[in-house]
Amino acid sequence: MVFFAASLLLIFIGLYAALVKRNLIKIIIGLSIMDTGVNMLIISLGFVKGRTAPIISLKDLFKKGSLLVDVSKVVDPLPQALVLTAIVIGVAVTAMALSVVIRMYSVKKSIEIDDFKELKW
Amino acid sequence: MVNPVVIIAVTLIAAFSIGIFQFLGKKFVRGVFWLTILFDFTAILSIAYGFLTKVIKAPIMVKIGGFPPPIGINLYVDQLSAYLGVVVFFIGAMAAYHWINRGIDDPEPKALVLMLLLLLGSTGMIFTQDFFNLFVFIEITSIASYGLVASKLDGFSLEAAFKYIVVGSISSTFVLLGAVLLYKFAGSLNMLDISNHINKSMYSGGMLIIISIMFLFGLLIELEVFPMNGWALDIYQGANPAVVAILAGGIVKGFYLVFVRSANYLKFPYLLKIGIIFGLATYLVSQFFAWKQKDIRRLFGYSSVGQLGLLILAGAFYINGNLTGFAKKYMLFAIIFFVLNHSFSKSTLFFLADLFGKRNIEEWKGAISQNKFFGFLFSSSVLSMAGAPPFLGFWAKLFFILAIPRQYFYIVVLVLIGAAAEILYYFNLYRIASENDGEVLDYKGSIIPSLFNVLVLLGLAVLGAYKFFTITGMEIQNAKFLAFITVSAIAVLIIGISRIAQWILALGMLISFSYHLIRNQNFVSVFNIQSFFVILVLVGAVIFLFATYPLSKKYSASFYPLFIFTVFSMVGISVASNWISLFIFWELMSWSSYLLINQGSKKPAWIYLVMSAIGGYSMLAGIKLLSTGSNLIPVFKASAIAAPVWAAILIFTAFLVKMGTAPLHIWARDAYGESPDGFTPLLSGVLSKMGVFGAILTIVYLIPHISHSNIILYGLAWFGALTALFMALLAVFQEDVKKILAYSSISQVGYILIGIALATSLGYSAALYHTVNHLIFKGLLFVAAAGIIYRTGTSYLPEMGGLIRRMPFTFLAFLMGIITLAGIPPLSGFAGKWLLYSALLEKRWMFILLIAMFASIVAFMYCYKLLHAIFLGQLRDKYRDTKEVPLPIVIIELILAGLTMAVGMKPSLILRFSDKAIKTLGFSNPGYAYEGAHRIVSKFGYWNAYFMAVFAIGSFIIALVLFFLVKAKIRKVGQLDIGYAGEVPDSPESVHFGYDLYAHMRRAVRVFIYPHVENSYRRIYQGLMAFVDYTRRFYTGDLNTYALWVIITLSFIFYILYKGVF
Fold this sequence. Notes:
The complex is a heterodimer of chains A (121) and B (1062).
Chain A: H1 2-20, H2 24-46, H3 58-64, H4 77-108
Chain B: H1 4-20, H2 26-52, E1 60-63, E2 74-77, H3 79-102, H4 108-127, H5 131-150, H6 155-186, H7 191-197, H8 207-222, H9 230-238, H10 241-265, H11 271-289, H12 296-320, H13 325-356, H14 367-370, H15 372-385, H16 392-403, H17 409-433, H18 448-472, H19 476-494, H20 499-519, H21 521-525, H22 529-547, H23 559-575, H24 579-598, H25 602-626, H26 645-659, H27 668-674, H28 680-701, H29 709-732, H30 737-758, H31 761-792, H32 808-822, H33 829-843, H34 846-871, H35 887-905, H36 908-920, E3 929-931, E4 935-938, E5 941-944, H37 945-967, H38 999-1002, H39 1006-1009, H40 1012-1031, H41 1039-1059
Antiparallel strand pairs in B: 1-2, 3-4, 4-5
């Protein structure tokens, strides 16, 4: 529940930045925070208190002589797999956004929203 | 068949190899790119072909990674996704070709990599059956689009790209949240699995609603739904048109399919409400905001957004609208046709906008009139986009309207209003582009992609018509006749090098068609109201087509094809067996006649089109009201229909527009006055009579079945009477020969309307008689006017005068036309008046009778003015060598003059036919009787036409003889051999008083001839424009505001959900 609330908070902070901040970089930071919030939420969905990571390690092999994991002892592995993908995608989007901002700066020498309101109506 | 996953894999590998091996040079990069596109396209085409030929019977399921579906990711390719894939790759290939051809600003390899990723992403998005996988593909598509939008690297495109990134990230956040919460809720990510797990009752719990809305809301943002679509419009305006073409033409359709499919899998119960609210809002708002738009790309953007709104609406009805069997099928085809139509025509428009290069629509002057082939491509796409028959957009709209359930009639009305608004701004653009006086501007670059697109569009038009006729199960004759019209018009178009050949072919077609019709026993033996109008159309068309020969040199190659189109569509209207086929041919007639008028003058044609669109769509709405659940195609069968009042009124509006009845007449003066001279006789003599035909149909088959029918008929008679009077008054003060005749035409059709509104057999006799009579004399006058304008080069009356000596035959014919128009015996005009007045007396509508009589007195005034200003008075110096009008026109004039004389002597020449027609309308007699051979008797007296004619001609001969007897004593005075106010005039102009002949009367009737109606229309239009101009500032261009609207919309959805509005 704490994770849930925290991640929602992060999402709202990110949204707030996208809604209010006039600086392009700050907006991108906001988007990243929002992304982090979502990722945290995904992880928290699969989290079960007191269980371990769903990782197969060589140590297990030597200890138990088997690669099979006891399902009752690990958290849900799927959200973790999903979150890896989501993180990668988030990074890609951030990179793309930042590179666009660099280009925008080179065109107008500004990273304020007020200088980018030519397309309208 | 290729495994669908191969398409994705190959594209991915190709994209990476281009990225890595780009140092191998341009040839390598382009080679890999085109090979990949070719491979993908062929692969997906083979799958689609498999579905089409039913080789592949079930949707294809592809396991990935060896795990069976609920656990592993799988692809799911069904018919729709395969077809959509073909469209996406086709448009993608065209866009890429266009882009490379125009020169990519960015380093080319990177752009091509992004293009491949975009296509890959959208294919995966369409194919996948896993919610998280869907998110991944959406992100691939989005990131590729961000890059492509920014690729132009100027201020506009970067700004658009950044806005897209921010709004797109918010959107994908919602999609991702929705997907993972769905996993938490249902324990699966597989769409089919989830669909099996949930049912509608779970939505009462609340959790599933929030999850579904999150997911679908994310997709709604990508679907450019109002009010969160500012970013999309900015992309349309700012990004490279090639990129926009693929985004609007292909990718967005992928999002659309995903949206509709997900909603279906989620069994989302509120889809219909959301679809109606947001779909309609998006559609209407963008169609109106586009009115004021000057940037052509943003204009097309508004149109795209609007079409998406319509698609969302259609999809919501398809999934969630409880449509019954065939309505569901109609809706499916409406959606498919909308998608195809929009993809191909909008991408073409973006290509063409890029080729021409100008952004401001005011700078498009001459774009299509100067470049014929460019113009053909542009016109085809615009016509298809605006839903002109027989293009695909028309069938889509028709399917859509027919499929909407009756209880949602307001949606029909709103959608049709939006469609009319769309026509208004598209053809405002078209008007500017077809302007003739623009300097010669050329387009730059290759038109091959546009050409391919338009070829597909034309093929799709055939497919659309075929599907429409087969699915609705309408009589096959309609389809055959439509095909016949199109083929005829194309045949005439093909020999466009020679006008004479076109003229001969068109004439031959009309004559042989008429010949075959008359030889047809069925047609002759069953002579009814439809046959009456078929003959009217064909006879009028042959006569007027014959007269166009001398004028044809001026006209473009499309004049005769459109002429044929118009004529045959009028035949189609006349033989239509149900309201829908009448509507189809009605629209064909409106659009083809619009294009003809547009060859004369642009703005009047535009007004004509807008009024016709309002009329046509109101007819469609009325037809929709007539159709009941099981009976979508209402026929003309009195007993079958319980007609609501509104149905009759809406349908009638279309006919009143064509008849030019006040206050719907504003198009008529200029459309008649400035259309090509060869077409105006047909417009006045025949085309306006289609309104008469429709009015008769409505009154006979609909009006008797509604309440208050008497009041409606009486009201109609008043409309007719006031039109007759006021249009005659307006005609008196015109100074242009064709505009006088224009007002006169509307005024005369007003008389016909009175006759119809009487709904008695005598009234119909009067109406039908006058219909033919008006064709004869108004055709004569317009043909003569065409000849005179051809010789003198002007239609301005004060410029003419004294032409009697130069054009004696024309004078004679014109005089007879005028006498007929004035309704003076012995010519044919009097019989019409006599019948109408008798009918009015019979029904005791005395006020209307008085007005009609007064109007015909007013008619004398403009008749005299016409005759005087053209033929009498002083001949100008510049016309001393003017010749008689060309021979074909003289022939037609004399034939028509002979006809009016013959009919004047023997009215039964027309009445014989109208009697038969009236009998089929359910009357036992025509309302009058014959006594002997020539005497016609009504309740109020008799009239012997033959005697009158002999008497009048005898008097004329006696007067003529007397004149010749005294002629020797007459001293001839030279034209300028006179004293005038103590001075000797030195030029004819100084004694010409044709200008403003009735100036002294103007003051007395000023209040009646003041253009109140036109001004009110203008004020409404300007008011709307101002309103639109103010409200469209809603799209502030500010990124924060755009993001804010996303949140507000989401809150709005949750709010109405919480309040239980749903």
